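Q: What does the assembly look like in three dimensions?
Context provided by user:
Components: two
Sequences:
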Amino acid sequence: MTDIPVPKLNNNDSVYLLTAWTVKDGEAVRAGEPIAELETSKAVEELTAPQDGVLRHLLPEGAECAPGQVIARLGADGDAPDPGPEAGTGAQTGTEAGAQTGTGAETGTEAGAPVITAPARLFMDEHGISVEQVAALGVKVVRRSDLERLLPAAGAVPRPASVLAAAPEPPVPASGAEAADTETTGPETAAERDGGEGTGLVELSRAQRRVAEVVERSHREIPAAFTAMRVDVTEALAFARQETRRLRALIGLPELLVQATGGLLDRFPLCFASPAGAHRARLPAAGVGVGVTMDVGRGMVVPVVKDAGGRPLAEIARDLMRLRQAALNGSFREDDLRGGSIMVTLHTEEAVVTAVPVVFPGQTCALSLTAPRPEVVETAEGVFTTRRVVSLGLAYDHRFVNGREAAEFLGALRSALESPGSED
Amino acid sequence: MTRVAEHLNRALHDLLAADPDVHVLGEDIADPYGGAFKVTRGLSDRFGERVRSTPLSEGAIVGVGAGLALAGEKAVVEIMFADFAALAFDQLVNFAAKSTTMYGRPVPIPLVVRCPSGGGRGYGPTHSQSPQKHFLGVPGLHLFELTPFHDAGDLLAAMFALGQPCLLFEDKVLYTRRMFTGGVVDDLFRYELTGGTDGADGTGGTARVFVEGGGEPDCTLVVPGGLAHRALAAARELLLEEDLLCELLVPARLYPVPELPGLERARHVCVAEDGSEGGTWGTEVARVLYPRLWPALRRPITLLSAAASVIPAAPHLEREVLLQPDHIKRAITEALS
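A: Here is the predicted structure of the complete assembly.
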């Protein structure tokens, strides 16, 4: 059986309306064939079958459904129909869908079957109260207090779970108590159980799945080492304020670091190289592209500042500002995300001491920058003063770069940041 | 199924068709654009000069609306984002609300100022607020809020019948949700409208949302229309996970606070809203309820609001500031534990 979840169709709606099934329950469909129509607040979208199979509806026409909610399943031709209770349990009564869809979520009970609260279900398990006994109460919503009066009638003797499992009871309807479900619906593979809704599993967003792929590959392929250096940025911060006014472009430590990094290609070519097999690396063809991490709550992205070594600070600052705005609107062009030869990861949350970045596959080095913090130092005159420092870290592919180059590379960046503007 | 924005649009169409004295004013409301949220779509094509796009001056628009009302016509004014109602504060408080009593005899001012409010869309600090609280306690100024339960046509009629200026807040998140009909919310919850839905008492009535056959509620949640879905989500989880039965009261009129039904039975009362913390609508509701419920209350009324913070644009940060079902659920579980 393959689950068919509702895709996210837009940013405005938390629920969509299932206006029609275009393929009937139990009918065979081919991959790519439309199976249902979903109405958002703005448009009607078709939902297509991801593969060949026999369609099983889990939701009636006219019902509301949330992105991510499984509304149908595809089975092979010979598959037994889905056992009734599984359809529509879990997520629909579970926390997630309840919270997201609000009132749209249905409990998925069959007509007439009572909704049983989680504490009530626990009480049933503890005291061996059957679903039939509960149904006989004739109440629509069964709470723990409703069950307490059943106790004398039920014999009040707690039964072990094995007895429960052997008892020929009908499947437990609805409102996801997994314990009861597994006991009464018989054997079920771990995979099925884990894949079930309402098990507390969280589906990663598309953006995070992409991040997962990249960091997994980096971890698998790149033997990385890490060095961090303390950098006095007292002057750099003053310089940045002054340049912000002069250039009418927001200059901060990230801008200064991106520019300084771009200027180091000639001295440290391997730090900007791309591994080509185990013993060779390819140098960047045209200028240094510096990727900068951005995360504004829509998932992490690493847009690239192009030719960071050969351009004035104001241009780099304007590029970065445009990329930040694109991150906010989610309006990146494909080209914004390409062409990086090194990555700068920003950890500018207050009180971050140091951070070890993941080296991007296809690169050899990744820098990390923390927020400035005050530090008390003794001056040459023997008095104490405060300066502002950051931790500048470098994760590097140890196949291409050694600790000595890493320290020299960081040292060069440190010099650039500690005497800003000296190159101009 | 009718979505709330569409429902409100139809109500405005009906209102303009039924009453030739009604005018609609607002920024960019004329066709083909039809307003930022499309609530005025089709009105200018159908009713011509009675529906006008105006210059970008909230003070001017509300002033003209109040002037029309003073001169014997009726006006519906759209403020594109409720946040901008601050720009019309003087016209509302010192002109519209005062005009009803300043001329030696009561003068009707049939003026409705529509204010799309609330966040959840990532629109940032000045396009996401719920500024209801700033307009509380102004004599002669009535505050209403759109709900998914109340018929918008009845509501507009009730407001005009008052003959005093009204603000109608409309939580943006409602626009794309469906109107509830036939007393049914979902598989668990039912609703009924109590008191004055026909506009007779000027309150627009209150929707009571309850679990059929559920018995005495453990907690009664009082919320404005914009929070209805979040409160319902919290009530659903509280029932299914914590065995706590909640009833919802969703009044159409926020100020003056109407008579809220059935509270004598409640074990606990919680008022939730999406305005920022401090000086809230909830404190006004509590002020009205305390003398009435004092003998029955077992614990203080729980007041929930958005955090005392500017509303961030980044969605994950915005969620932390604005009131979510989880906050409501946690607060009620805590209060009743």
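Follow-up: The longest strand of chain B covers residues 269-276.
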